[in-house]
Amino acid sequence: MTEGPIDVLVVGGGIAGLSAAIAANEAGASVRLLERAPRAERGGNTRFSNGALRAVYRGIDDIRRLLPDLDAATIAKTDFGAYPAERYFADIGRVTEGRADPMLSRLVVDESFEVLCWLMASGVAYDPLWSAQAPPVDGHVTFYGGSAVEARGLGPGLIDALYDSLEQRGVLVSYGARAIALLREGRGVCGASVRTSDGAARDIEARSVVLASGGFESDVEWRTRYLGPGWDLATVRGTRFNTGDGLRMALEAGAQPYGQWSGCHAASWARHAPAYGDVTIAEKFKRDDFMHGIFINAAGRRFVDEGADLRALTYAKYGRAVMEQPGSVAWQIFDAQTVPLLSDDYRDPSVAPIRADTIEALAERLTGVAGNAFLETVKAYNAAVRDDVPHDPSRKDGRGTVGLAIPKSNWALRIERPPFEAHPVSFGITFTFGGVRIDARTRVIDIEGAAIPGLYAAGEMVGGLFYFNYPGGSGLVSAAVFGRLAGRAAQEGSSTAVRRQSDAKGGR
Ligand SMILES: Cc1cc2nc3c(=O)[nH]c(=O)nc-3n(C[C@H](O)[C@H](O)[C@H](O)COP(=O)(O)OP(=O)(O)OC[C@H]3O[C@@H](n4cnc5c(N)ncnc54)[C@H](O)[C@@H]3O)c2cc1C
Fold this sequence. Notes:
Elements: E1 2-11, H1 15-26, E2 31-35, H2 44-48, E3 52-54, H3 60-66, H4 72-76, E4 78-79, H5 85-95, H6 102-120, E5 126-128, E6 141-142, E7 147-151, H7 154-169, E8 172-175, E9 177-185, E10 188-196, E11 201-211, H8 220-227, E12 235-236, H9 245-252, E13 257-258, E14 264-270, E15 294-296, H10 315-323, E16 330-334, E17 354-356, H11 359-365, H12 371-384, E18 420-432, E19 435-436, E20 443-445, E21 451-457, H13 474-507
Parallel strand pairs: 1-2, 1-11, 2-8, 4-6, 11-21, 12-18
Antiparallel strand pairs: 3-7, 5-7, 9-10, 10-11, 13-19, 14-18, 15-16, 16-18, 17-18, 20-21
Helix pairs in contact: 1-7, 1-13, 5-6, 6-13, 11-12
This protein binds flavin-adenine dinucleotide (FAD).
Flavin-adenine dinucleotide (FAD) binds next to helix 1, strand 2, helix 2, strand 9 and strand 18.
């Protein structure tokens, strides 16, 4: 069966696809969105996200635009700071070790604030992102810059607002609809074959197709093939539906692979977490407060600089660091002075940490850890902590260690006050970095360097932006930026296609 033609077919119902569908609808296109997941699980990784949004803001006036309900008392106790474009651009460059494509980074940075304002017009609201800032000092909170706001209702709130907006606009959304192949016409793309949950297949013709179906983090075979040995054992933090379909279809259509296909975002993750994200339980598996303590492996040794930088600029690469340890496991160690700094994620009542009143007793209770080496590690670490710099979690305080092969550069406090706690962790994959090459209009570029007519891509599918690591809060924003651009460009492309067809008819 064949349906259509419509102007724009969007494949994928996370923030990239939803932004594309909204933008194309605003531009006057007839739009249809295919979401592989059933309605109850719609929304991809976006739904699982914490809703943190990294965008440029110049100061309190920009913050007020995003948070129109902000009251005077909150403003008085908060230093929101600012996040200039050049700092955002530099942060992407720094964490990706200079490899991020400057054209893609520039687009994300320059459009970041505007895209958040644009999402508000589709019903998205924001709250201050208190959880990612320094703990209050005398009731006063200092923002680090970077991600200052989160979507109200976090990932689920963001997703519900955008689907509601699509519904109000009358855009047709098909759930349980998996795109399996692109329809081709010459060098170009003119729709997609779709399999629905009843097993039926049909073709949907469209003048433009936007692929926004995420990466391949949920496919164990692709993960192992591209990321390498060990990644088969990863826990998936988000959706089970991102298995690389869009990437496969784009490559089959001649798209140019781009970016770090062996790289991904992965965080340290509670060892008891389920194999995939579960939309029915709030996320309790984050173990991102490592900067207050130390990580140790089964050999009893530290293996990363826990205080190398602000958490948002390091956590996405520490999943890989844990993966590379013996058994792909690790423990985070805290004492009575650092436990109060931990977030509520560490207080999930279903999992008690390993506790002891002496560090020696803790060593005995850490099953699978070389106890003597662990005690040596703690002793050497405690001896190396600087005393001449005050501890200040509201900024990179420079209170580090001296003389260790693996330093801790900031926030170093001795592990010395009982009781002591160990939290067992493993690694959770968030999304993959490898993707396809796009141009500044999100047109998919083929291996000869030319745009593939009718094909656009957005979100996690875009390669070339993230390498090795990622600045927290830029996944959602980059997906919205590219999604909005893709929706607009796809509508323009579809009008051009209509003009070409009618010219051809007129010329006959
Ligand atoms: C636990 C977790 C927390 C996170 N927290 C944050 C955060 O706070 N801030 C931030 O910026 N980023 C965060 N991220 C990353 C962020 O969620 C992603 O970068 C972003 O959501 C990507 O959007 P997307 O639309 O490209 O992909 P997704 O949201 O994953 O959407 C892809 C969609 O494609 C659909 N799909 C797949 N295959 C097909 C097919 N064949 N046919 C049709 N549909 C298909 C899927 O069902 C899915 O709906 C987090 C991710 C996770 C997992």
